[in-house]
Design goal:
Distance between the termini: 47 Å
Radius of gyration: 29 Å
Structural class: alpha/beta
Shape: globular
Number of strands: 16
CATH class of the largest domain: Alpha Beta
Bound molecules: pyridoxal-5'-phosphate
CATH architecture of the largest domain: 3-Layer(aba) Sandwich
Largest sheet: 7 strands, mixed
Strand order of the largest sheet: 5-11-10-9-8-6-7
Strand content: 15-25%
CATH topology of the largest domain: Aspartate Aminotransferase, domain 2
CATH superfamily of the largest domain: Type I PLP-dependent aspartate aminotransferase-like (Major domain)
Length: 500
Amino acid sequence: MKPQFEAAEFRKLPSVDSLLRRAELSPLVAEFGTGPVTAAARTELEAARDAIRAGAAAPTWERIAERIVSNLRAVETPSLRPVINATGVLIHTNLGRTPLSQAAQIAVIELAKGYSTLEYDLEAGGRGSRHRHPARLLSELTGAEDALVVNNNASAVFLVLTALAHGREVIVSRGELVEIGGGFRIPDVLRQSGATLVEVGTTNRTHPHDFANAISCHTAALMRIHASNFRQLGFVKKPELNQLVAIAQAHRADESPDRPSSVGPVQIPGIDDRAPAEPTLAERPEPEWPIVIDDLGSGTLLDTARFGLAAEPMVQSSVHAGADIITFSGDKLLGGPQAGLIVGKSKYISRLRAHPLARALRVDKMTLAALDATLRAYRSGRAATEIPVWRMIDQPAETVKRRTQQLQRQLVAAGLDAAVVRGESTIGGGSLPGETLPTHLLALDTPQPDTFAAALRQNDPPVICRIQNELLLLDLRTVLPEQDAGLLEALAIRMTASRA
Ligand SMILES: *Cc1c(COP(=O)(O)O)cnc(C)c1O
């Protein structure tokens, strides 16, 4: 009986060809191509056969076609796609940190279109270095002698420690042995780089003499690390950067001058005196030890105090204080692409550039294009108006309130219930921990905020919001003004649907 039932049900299934000719599927062939539609049809027919073998009846042809359409649509929706950030977290690592400025977007498109001078020297008509592009602007903006850009700040820290402290000691305060998030722990990174961590001070208090007493002939660096995502209050002390610099300099002066100070690249006249190769690592002069490394985390080129926020350490101040190497992120408060920016003394930067890891951690042309456009906004003094993260920081609570009230009025006019309440936006991204900006929120009093939040995530584009005290809250500070209309539409559709 069973085999006969199966055979009869199998016979009811359409062939792939007859499926592809159906009215529902033929437009899909034009949209996705024959290959993907045929593959989807085969998968669906195979599933139907499995179901029949398990005792089910054959699905109708309509049902099979429907499933093929929805499977194809689901696969065609990229998993990486734009969303509306209504969380009020400005630097949101899960949502791609921050939007790029318009100039940076255009620069990326222009460069992506064709060939470029990425590693081409127009004057010499030959090979150039990709590293020279951001170096000049970064030096100009920060006052540093030289600069190097790598994939992100995590890799910047790793490169610096590997190239400058491998096999030697790095002194760090116990109050700064932090975990940044994403599993990036300073003690682990130090170990991976081949450097030895020397902890000094206590969790809450570290004195300049703690660093001074720990220096030995094995010391490569005194390192300062920004605490980023937490804050210590109360009985707390740590040395100023310029105190670390003074300690390091005092110890350098102590060193006996008997080690060879410089072994330049060897040049053989007549063999290749036109274009001297970059000296190899072994040929470079030994750095003077110990050096001072400052990992700023976010860092900033603009004074955050100007915007009513706590003071986030400025890159220029670290350069001015005399740090030898300073690392910071391209996509935190700088508001540019993901990148790790390293600035400092040229004798150390040139060692970093020559290290094999620099090749492994190098950035691509689109990152360099976006970074260049972002840095230009700082040079022209227009960063606060052109770079989205600064525009959001600078947006007065009153402006957010007006936009939120307008959205609320439109929802109420559509017969939907929403209120405007006071709240706080946060900076996020491991910068300015605990610092908030006063804002106004759209509050939706729905019986099941979790379900409604999930529905908003199903929207195209998805809307990401927050839930607090059973209220669904949307902060327009992080919603780009051109997204207001899309947000209204999403809310109206989903709210109407949830009432039905
Ligand atoms: C964020 C952060 C990093 C890592 O920077 P990414 O650009 O995210 O790789 C490293 N150090 C500190 C102190 C940070 O705050």
